Amino acid sequence: MANNEDKFRKIIAHAKEYGFVFQSSEIYDGLSAVYDYGQYGVELKNNIKDYWWKSMVQYHENIVGVDAAIFMHPAVWKASGHVDAFSDPMIDNKDSKKRYRADVLVEDHIVKLEGKIQKEVTKAAKRFGDSFDEEQFSNTNPRVLSNKKKIEDIKQRLYSAMKDKRLGDVKTLIEDLGIVCPISGSRNWTDVRQFDLMFSTRIGSLSDEANEIYLRPETAQGIFVNYLNIQKTGRMKIPFGIAQMGKAFRNEIVARQFIFRMREFEQMEMQFFVRPGDEIKWFDYWKEERMKWHLGMGIPQEKYKFHEHENLAHYANAAFDIEFEFPIGFKELEGIHSRTDFDLKSHQEYSGKKIQYFDPEINDSYIPYVVETSIGLDRTFLAVLSNAYTEEKLEDGSERIVMKIPPFLAPIKAAVLPLVKKDGLPEKAMEIFDKLKYNYMCFYEEKDSIGKRYRRQDAIGTPYCFTIDHQTFEDNTVTIRERDSMKQDRIGIDRISEIISERLKSNK
Ligand code: ATP
Predict the structure, then answer these.
(1) What is the mean pLDDT of residues 60-73?
(2) What pLDDT score was predicted for residue 209?
(3) Res 211: pLDDT
(4) Ligand 1 binding pocket mutation candidate from 379, 382, 385 (most atoms within 8 A of CB)
(5) Atom of ligand 1 nearest to the CA of 321
(6) CA-based angle 405:406:407, to the nearest 5?
(7) Ligand 1 proximity of 265 Cβ (cutoff 6 Å)
(8) From the CB of 217, is ligand 1 less than 6 Å away?
(9) Contact 63/240 with Cβ under 8 angstroms?
(10) Cα-flanking dihedrals φ and ψ of residue 242, to 5°?
(11) How many Å apart are CA 91 and CA 88, to the nearest integer?
(12) Quick check: CB of 418 below 6 Å from ligand 1?
């Protein structure tokens, strides 16, 4: 654990030092849980967006995009259920004055119990060697069984209390489990209260309550309220999807995990409209498709796992998360939800506009069912960053940090470097840069030794450096240096573009 925390700190420091992510308003000591993307961060982020948009919109003949406004009519959030229900239970520790999400405190306690079970299993596996039958052991060992039972009881109490909003019972549960504040170590808790997660502001010149509007807490509603417009103007036939990426805002209670949990963040969501009764088939389809998308970034499969929701939201009839092993543990990266007709039906009721689809194949009208894929752009960025961060000890005893970002996502595809800043080398290098820049994001630099310049490119994940030296004038060749192997070779200038293009097709 300590090691991973250490890795997380290093990644955060690296992201700042090399222009990926800065704290917002840093010169004013920052704004909590709000971040800015720097010169390389913005490129990486744009490349992830591009990868998502192409896979979802361009590669599907039946999915189109939309870019809805952040501000929406306040009735939207009534209809969606957010005004009444989008809140988290919070609790304060009176000694440390720290605030926590009450349900997360309980869930962390469950993770500890799961850790105890795992320990028993690992111990037994060692003891029994090859003959060990994990399933049989887990189903018979008294200590494992007792912890499993405890977990079941806790989940049962937590979820039913949360569902019925019995906040007093959530507090009793925290007390019964003897949960202490990780900072003060005390059990001196306040009552549990609901904390509204939506940000609100005022629109127009009057400041009465009628003008209060919200900053959207999810992009999905911008899709639902445009369903009719797009279905009609695009002549869309079910099944079809609408995709959107954009900012969302949540006044998170606990926001201490870098870009994992922000108050302003970006989502990439797709709502897929299907015939009622077909939703589970499409749910299974999108679950697999989305996992393939993640693996397409070349990140090892074992870094991902599916997590089935046990505590379904009132509108859902199936829900899975794709979790990623961040340095802070396995956590949600994307949600795939079967949302039934909850949203469209509710907008039909609140707006008074008929939202129906006439299905010529069955000669009947219905409100479509929806399967949603909802991924956090910033969390994907963090997944790519933490998977890429590599510390290496080199043969000569020195060390380097290299970001093994998949080349097609790398902020800079090629650095063009004159070996020295004289004898016409910078001019020659600029000539090459000027040819490449129309197709690839390139970087030009002439300061410092070539070794130092290579290291800086390693640190931002540039797959190739091309160095121009005196020999370039003799035979029209340059040195190509590859990021991961650090191998150097001489190639003709005319091959540079083709080599970069080949590499961008691979995710390694
Ligand atoms: P969590 O349980 O972690 O709060 P959630 O279940 O509320 O997340 P959803 O409402 O399903 O999240 O949102 C879809 C996706 O948006 C999440 O999978 C996540 O990647 C991203 N996301 C949600 N909240 C945040 C946040 N505060 N900061 C960054 N990304 C977020």
Answers:
(1) 97
(2) 57
(3) 82
(4) 379
(5) 18
(6) 105
(7) yes
(8) no
(9) yes
(10) -125, 130
(11) 10
(12) no
Q: In what order do the strands lie in the sheet with 99-101?
A: 99-101, 87-92, 193-196
* Integer Cα distance of 58 and 65 in angstroms: 9
Beta strands, E only, 360-483: 364-366, 369-376, 389-393, 399-403, 414-418, 442-444, 464-468, 477-482
Q: For residue 58, how far is its CA from the centre of ligand 1 (angstroms)?
A: 25
pLDDT value at residue 203:
86
Those residues whose C-beta lies under 8 Å from the C-beta of residue 113, and which sit 6 or more positions away, are: 147, 150, 151, 154
Q: 341 CB less than 6 Å from ligand 1? A: no
Q: How far apart are CA 351 and CA 224, in angstroms?
A: 12
The confidence band for 210, taking pLDDT boundaries of 50, 70 and 90, is low
The CB of 253 under 6 Å from ligand 1? The reply is: no
Write the pLDDT tens digit of every residue in 141-194: 999 999 999 999 999 999 999 888 899 999 999 999 999 999 999 999 999 999
Share of the chain residues as helix, strand and coil, in percent rounded to the nearest 5? 45, 25, 30
> What per-residue confidence (pLDDT) applies to 206?
60
CB distance 262 to ligand 1 below 6 Å: yes
Measured in whole angstroms, the distance separating CA 433 from the mean position of its chain's CA atoms is: 33
Mean pLDDT, the chain, rounded, equals 94
For residue range 273-320, what is the model confidence (pLDDT) as tens digits?
Answer: 999 999 999 999 999 999 999 999 999 999 999 999 877 877 888 999
Q: What is the pLDDT of residues 3-47, one digit of tens each?
A: 688 999 999 999 999 999 999 999 999 999 999 999 999 999 999
pLDDT of residue 254: 76
Q: Is 248 in the pocket of ligand 1 (CB under 6 A)?
A: no
What interhelical angle do 2-17 and 377-388 show, nearest 10? 100
Question: CA-CA distances (angstroms) from residue 102 to 105, 112, 159, 180, 261?
Answer: 5, 16, 12, 12, 16
Task: Find the mean pLDDT for residues 84-89.
Answer: 88
Token pair 């869930």 is at which residue?
Answer: 107
1 pLDDT band, cuts 50/70/90, is: very low
Closest CA to ligand 1's atom 9:
335
Ligand 1 pocket, mutate which of 100, 266, 332 (most atoms under 8 A from CB)? 332
The protein residue whose alpha carbon is closest to atom 18 in ligand 1 is 334
- Which residue owns the Cα nearest ligand 1 atom 20? 376
Residue nearest to atom 12 of ligand 1 (CA): 335
- Tell me, in angstroms, the distance from the centre of ligand 1 to residue 10's CA: 24
| N residues, the chain | 508
Q: Strand 35-37 and strand 21-23: pairing?
A: antiparallel
